[in-house]
Amino acid sequence: MARVQVHVSLIGRKELSGEIYRQLRRAIVDGRLRPGEHLPPSRELARGLSVSRTTVTVAYDRLAGEGFVTARVGAGTFVNAHGAPVRNETKRRPVDGALRPLPVWDSIPLSTAFARPAQFDFRTGVPDAALFPHDRWRRLMSRQLRSEAMRAGVYGDPAGHRGLREAIARHIGVARGVEASADDVTVVNGTQQALDVMARVLLAPGDRVAVEDPGYRPARWLFESLGVRVSGVPVDEHGLVVDALPRHARLVYVTPSHQYPLGVSMALSRRRALLAWAERNGAAIVEDDYDSEFRFGGRPIEPLQTLDTTGRVVYVGSFSKTMLPTLRLGFVVTPPSLRVAVHKAKQVTDWHTSMPGQMALARFIDDGGFARHIRKMGGVYRARHEMVTNILSHDLADHLEVVPSAAGLHVTAVARSASAEEIGAILRRASDAGVELHELSRFAVDAPARAGLVLGYGAISAAHIEEGLRRLRSCFGA
What we know:
There is one protein chain. The protein folds into three domains: 1-99, Arc Repressor Mutant, subunit A (Orthogonal Bundle), CATH 1.10.10; 120-126 and 374-476, Aspartate Aminotransferase, domain 1, CATH 3.90.1150; 132-371, 3-Layer(aba) Sandwich (Aspartate Aminotransferase, domain 2). Helices cover 39% and strands 14% of the residues. The chain is built from 15 helices and 16 strands. The protein has helices at 16-30, 42-49, 53-65, 134-145, 148-152, 162-176, 191-202, 217-225, 268-281, 304-307, 339-350, 355-366, 369-395, 420-432, 462-476, and strands at 69-72, 76-79, 120-121, 185-188, 208-213, 229-236, 239-240, 249-254, 284-288, 313-318, 330-333, 400-402, 410-415, 435-436, 438-439, 452-456. The strands form four sheets. The protein has an eight-stranded mixed sheet, with helices on both faces. Strands 12-13-16-15 form a four-stranded antiparallel sheet. It starts with 15 loop residues before the first helix and ends with a helix.
């Protein structure tokens, strides 16, 4: 192992050699210094502690005599790889402390959605990592790590790498008809940070936000953590019910292209009504263009951003589904009136998103690799979409009604007769059978939880879909 840097505090201490011995011994017993690790040379440690070399040598000799370390001539001093003879040692635990979090954090769960692997993985929000162009991405990252920008070693623009902002503006202009320049684009670490930045720019504690019900729960938790009041607004087969919006909402968060989790697309009349409502009430609309890249039928719907004539729409996109969630890359397109404030909000949260990933993605988009990847994945996901919906519509038709959907990486099926509690029991049996998926009730905001299932097909291969759904069907009859 490499030589470790150790921390020893001698301020206000007496018997310096004994203090060095005790602190190093405690670090070994606690496991902070691991077997085989190389301690600093006595001369180096003595210089760092401003003590004589003899003071350190005495401490090392005592540790060696008790079997905690081994000295090798010409090599150095190492933590004993065979384990130190610990006698009645108890690891010191930190005190609980008097500090307590705000009450809101008691109501926000820590996600365990992907804590365990699944043999048949129908969980949502996950693309097929096996089809990601790993080799191509590795070469792009390697090139960027050797670039002049990386060698400079300075902080970047909070708005993001200029090349990526230009590439994103071109891509969404061609693929989605979004009218934006690079100056309108801010790079973020995914949708969740986009919402956080916009909330900081537009909302004050006590303001009201409207979200879809059922909807994306992490958005609700984020708003609530900032002291914002959240109201759920029902969703029907045409999308968000605009007539149900609370009059005093300052911001509306919607997923019009492929509503999460129901999968419906917002009708044109609803989109126009939502824009008119926002203008009448002086509100902002945050449009999460969720799953818009993967459409398997029907005409693509126009984003709210392209219909907006008053500058009230903030357009949010992410590369978590088109690339990988682990990359943590997304973007927000804002009206010019918000541009500077958004850059400042990004700066005070984390300054900027990781630069090598940004630069690699810019090159990937510019050289056409991203477009080719989307076309390839679109064909794969189309086949899985058809397979899942066909099997649900036939083999599980007695239990579930599929919500029509022509886009995205998941489909939703509403229970015909089972309650939300019964669906929960079915999912527990499915989990025992190696099948993981989500229940519709978990996405409820204010309205009573609806019974049903949400099935993703991004992470499961076509070869495993039929067996996975067969096992799921058997859980209904248990």
